[in-house]
Write a structure and sequence with these properties.
about 100 residues, mainly alpha, Arc Repressor Mutant, subunit A, two-stranded antiparallel sheet, 4 helices, elongated
Length: about 100
C-alpha cells in the first residue's frame, strides 16, 4: 500500500461566500469594522456606545463589553444616516493653543 498525499486547497472566506450565496454572515470584531470603514477601532466602539452602529455584545452582562458586528448591519446603519467620523485630524483634543 502506498501513501498518497492529498493537498486540500484553502478557500478564502470571500470566495466561499460567492460560491454559497445563502451562507450565513459571520460576526467580525471592531478592528475589522474599523479597517472596513477606514477609521480607528476606538471610534467604532464609541459609535456603538452612542447607538450609531449596531453591535452585538459577546457577554451582555459584563461591565466591559466585547462587541461583534455584521458588516451588512453596519452598512445599513451608515446608509440610514449614521455619519462616519473623521480620522481626528480636526479634533480639539489634539490641538495645542
Amino acid at each position: 500500500m502506498s501513501t498518497t498525499s492529498v493537498e486540500i486547497p484553502i478557500i478564502p472566506f470571500q470566495a466561499f461566500s460567492t460560491f454559497h450565496p445563502n451562507a450565513p454572515e459571520h460576526y467580525v470584531s471592531a478592528a475589522v469594522v474599523a479597517e472596513y470603514l477606514g477609521i480607528e477601532r476606538r471610534q467604532v466602539l464609541q459609535m456603538t456606545r452612542d447607538a450609531k452602529l449596531p453591535g452585538h455584545p459577546v457577554d451582555p452582562w459584563s461591565k466591559r463589553k466585547t462587541w461583534r458586528y455584521k458588516l451588512s448591519e453596519v452598512e445599513a446603519a451608515l446608509e440610514g444616516g449614521a455619519r462616519k467620523p473623521d480620522n481626528g485630524a480636526g479634533s480639539p483634543r489634539g490641538r495645542k493653543e
